[in-house]
Write a structure and sequence with these properties.
Layout: H1 9-41, H2 53-92, H3 105-108
Length: 139
C-alpha cells in the first residue's frame, strides 16, 4: 500500500477487510429486511416476467460465468500491476551505477584491428591523417 508505513500495513488491511465484511453483512441485512416487509404486507409475490424458468436460469448462468471470467481477469491484471510496480519502484530507488572507468576512452572509439583499413590503431602518438590528405612531414 503506497503511503503507508511498513508496520501499519497489516492494521490498515485488517480495517479495510472488516469494513468490506460489514458492508456485505449490511447489504444482506437490507435484503432480508425488504423481504420481511413484503411478507408482512400480505402482497402476493411478484410474478416473473418470463413464465418459463429455464431460459432465465440459462441467462443467469451466462451472467455468472461472465462475472467469474471478469473477476479472474481483474485478479490477474492486479497481480501483474502490483508485480510491475514493485519492480519499477526497486529500479527507481536503486543505487546509481558506478562511473565508467575512463583511462582508455579512445580505445572504445577505434575500429577493431581486422576492420581498420588504414592502420589508424597502430599510431601511438595521436590520430593518423586521413588517407587522401598528406601528413605534416610530407609538406
Amino acid at each position: 500500500m503506497a503511503g503507508v508505513e511498513e508496520h501499519n500495513k497489516k492494521s490498515v488491511a485488517l480495517v479495510l477487510l472488516l469494513a468490506g465484511g460489514a458492508l456485505v453483512l449490511a447489504g444482506a441485512g437490507v435484503i432480508i429486511y425488504q423481504q420481511h416487509l413484503v411478507a408482512t404486507r400480505g402482497l402476493p409475490p411478484a410474478k416473473p416476467v418470463i413464465d418459463d424458468p429455464v431460459p432465465m436460469a440459462a441467462v443467469i448462468q451466462k451472467v455468472l460465468f461472465s462475472l467469474l471470467i471478469l473477476v479472474l481477469v481483474f485478479c490477474v491484471t492486479m497481480l501483474a500491476f502490483v508485480r510491475f510496480s514493485r519492480r519499477f519502484r526497486q529500479w527507481l530507488l536503486r543505487r546509481p551505477a558506478p562511473p565508467t572507468p575512463a583511462e582508455d576512452v579512445w580505445a572504445m572509439h577505434q575500429l577493431p584491428p581486422d576492420l581498420d583499413p588504414a592502420g589508424y590503431g597502430e599510431n601511438t602518438e595521436g590520430p593518423a591523417p586521413p588517407p587522401d590528405e598528406q601528413g605534416p612531414e610530407s609538406r
